[in-house]
Specification:
The complex is a heterodimer.
Chain A lengths: L7 E10 L2 E11 L4 E5 L6 H9 L6 E10 L2 E2 L5 H7 L4 E4 L3 H4 L6 H13 L3 H14 L5 H6 L7 H14 L4 E5 L7 H18 L2 E6 L2 H5 L4 E6 L2 E7 H4 L6 H9 L50 E2 L5 E2 L9
Parallel strand pairs in A: 3-8, 3-9, 6-7, 7-8
Antiparallel strand pairs in A: 1-2, 1-4, 4-5, 9-10, 10-12, 11-12
Helix pairs in contact in A: 4-5, 4-7, 5-7, 7-8
Chain B lengths: L1 E11 L7 E12 L4 E5 L6 H9 L6 E6 L2 E2 L5 H8 L2 E4 L3 H4 L6 H12 L4 H14 L16 H13 L5 E5 L7 H18 L2 E6 L2 H7 L2 E6 L2 E7 H6 L4 H8 L12
Helix pairs in contact in B: 4-5, 6-7
Classes of the chains: A alpha/beta, B alpha/beta.
């Protein structure tokens, strides 16, 4: 794997909300043209990671340590003015509910036009030309109609395309897509993921693709990173993770998906019993231990450390440490 | 158990002089006891309208719905109320299908007391049994919906559906608001309940992998019509209709395994 300098590099980022740790030493790096998938269930810290990168932490949350570097520039502690330029500029972001992110009383053309003016100073005919180019690039080829449309006049898939166009308006180097297809039908979801795939290859975007469903994004990423209870528990090339997951949680997530080849219909799925520990709850050892099929007594006594494995992989599990 | 013939539901497009269109367009199917029919289609194809027509939450425009020999469309309002206990729905979003101000014990006690006429003691006993059957425990009856996770809420919704001992359950996108890990728990629960109670089920989703896993037979719906219906394995392996093939092609694919790995 070529190691070009990453567009986005997060190192040992910790976030707490009123003293409760919600992100614990999270590190990740995405290179230009690379797609990194960030996977885990609700509450594991994946959206918090995205918000922390953008400096959009909710009230009461603060960065306890670590750094977020965008093309080498540290964003932790950057001024609000600087962050405002970066959001929607060098870092584009799209979310789960495009309908909730678009302004319902503003025509699509004006919303995207505003980004073009704000981040690139384009106005008048130049703005119109760029707007049309962007709409075509995201597959909204009926540019006249879309430009004049209000968000509610577009389908969910078209709204998400408009969101992507708006994110592209600032000529981003990093695109963060947080559950971009969860609200969409399977066929439309697949089209949106195809679009993101094309964009990151053609524009050399560093893409951070966040989802609770490894099956949905696994095929669209170079590497996947799995989080559990605020920590990174596994990093692996996407091409290897399905057949050879190293963390029991990753393996359990894969097995819990219906539609895995070889599972007869109407047979019980291998579900993961229990649920994520509540933030702030105290437990000894590994956060996943009580749901883990492989857990041994040591797992509820010792907190697993990060174990670097071969070819850039790694996992946080005691089975890779001595004395398990 | 359930036999539906030429079911039709017409709506008029919005605005004055709006053209009438068929949301459900002469659909026929049957579901036997213990069997699951999977209904797959995209937003707006009419799958939820169809499920509502079966219970007459929406009045069908035409066609016939026979349930265990009863002509559902001919029932009087009073007879319909009594009939509905035999058919229950589990909705998509457990966040909006449970009243946020109603504690779980009230949610579950209401049908037991007012429909089945159980006394306080029997209600309590049955309620605990229901909670345990869906994988919760007695302490959950004292919780409000916001104190439960999405998966737990959906379990409550399933317990509520089961409380009247129905013979037929409609599961309308029951897991689309849930994480993959929790989705598997809820799907397993539905499969177990069906096995234990011999329930007939209509399982509705836009996700063909999900429907294929849960169903004996699958009907593919597009613009109000069934474009194809067959045994689950047959649909997955040898779909005939181009639309079914598009749905199958949109399933998530896994990356090809590295030759070097």
């Amino acid at each position: 794997m070529s190691r070009s300098s990453p567009a986005l590099a997060v190192e040992d980022l910790s976030v707490d909300i009123r003293g409760v740790t919600v992100l614990d030493h999270v590190s990740l790096a995405v290179s230009p043209g690379e797609a990194l998938g960030l996977v885990g269930e609700s509450g594991c810290g994946k959206s918090m990671t995205a918000l922390a990168i953008m400096g959009l932490l909710p009230r009461g949350a603060r960065v306890g340590g670590g750094s977020v570097r965008l093309l080498g520039q540290d964003l932790v502690g950057a001024s609000e003015d600087a962050l405002c330029k970066i959001r929607g500029g060098a870092v584009g972001m799209i979310f789960q509910e495009p309908g909730a992110c678009l302004d319902p009383v503003m025509r699509i053309g004006r919303q995207i036009g505003e980004s073009l003016r704000l981040h690139r100073g384009l106005t008048g005919a130049k703005q119109d030309a760029e707007l049309r180019k962007l709409l075509v690039e995201v597959g909204l080829t009926d540019t006249e109609r879309v430009t004049r449309a209000y968000p509610h006049e577009l389908s969910g898939g078209m709204q998400q395309r408009a969101m992507i166009a708006m994110a592209l308006a600032g000529e981003p180097v990093v695109l963060i897509a947080d559950e971009p297809t969860t609200a969409l039908d399977a066929r439309i979801a697949s089209q949106i993921l195809d679009l993101l795939d094309t964009l990151r290859r053609e524009r050399g975007l560093a893409l951070l693709l966040i989802s609770h469903d490894l099956a949905v994004i696994g095929g669209r990423c170079d590497r996947v990173m799995v989080m559990y209870a605020g920590r990174v528990v596994e990093v692996a090339p996407a091409a290897q993770v399905f057949a050879d997951a190293r963390h029991p949680y990753t393996a359990a997530l894969i097995a819990a998906s219906p539609g895995v080849a070889g599972v007869a219909s109407k047979t019980l799925l291998r579900d993961i019993p229990g649920q994520l520990p509540a933030p702030g709850s105290t437990y000894e050892g590994c956060a996943f231990a009580e749901r883990c099929a492989l857990a041994r007594p040591a797992c509820t006594r010792r907190t697993p450390l990060w174990s670097a494995l071969e070819s850039g992989r790694g996992a946080r599990c005691l089975q890779y440490e001595d004395g398990w | 158990m359930l036999e539906v013939t030429e079911l039709l539901k017409m709506y008029r497009a919005r605005g004055p002089g709006g053209a009438p269109f068929a949301a459900v367009d002469r659909v026929s199917f049957c579901i036997r006891a213990g069997e699951t029919l999977g209904l797959v289609g995209e937003s707006g194809c009419g799958k939820s309208t169809l499920s509502r027509c079966l219970m007459r939450l929406v009045e069908p425009t035409g066609g016939q719905v026979m349930f265990d020999g009863v002509d559902v469309r001919a029932l009087s309002a009073r007879a319909l109320r009594a009939f509905r206990r035999r058919m229950q729905i589990v909705h998509q979003d457990p966040y909006s299908s449970l009243d946020p101000l109603m504690r779980i014990d009230r949610v579950l006690a209401a049908p037991l007391r007012y429909v089945l006429g159980l006394d306080a003691c029997a209600t309590e006993k049955r309620m605990v049994a229901l909670l345990e059957e869906v994988g919760l425990n007695a302490s959950h009856r004292l919780a409000y919906p916001h104190e439960l996770s999405g998966g737990q809420r959906q379990r409550v919704a399933i317990a509520r559906a089961l409380s009247l001992n129905p013979e037929f359950i409609i599961a309308d996108e029951p897991t689309s608001a849930l994480d993959v890990s929790i989705q598997a728990q809820v799907l397993n629960l539905l499969l177990r309940l069906q096995r234990d109670h011999g329930l007939a089920m209509l399982f509705i989703s836009h996700d063909i992998s999900l429907v294929a896993h849960m169903s004996d037979r699958i009907a593919v719906m597009q613009s109000g019509r069934f474009v194809e219906s067959a045994a689950a394995a047959e649909i997955v392996e040898q779909a005939q209709h181009p639309y079914t093939r598009t749905l199958l092609a949109a399933r998530p694919h896994r990356p090809k395994r590295d030759a070097t790995a």
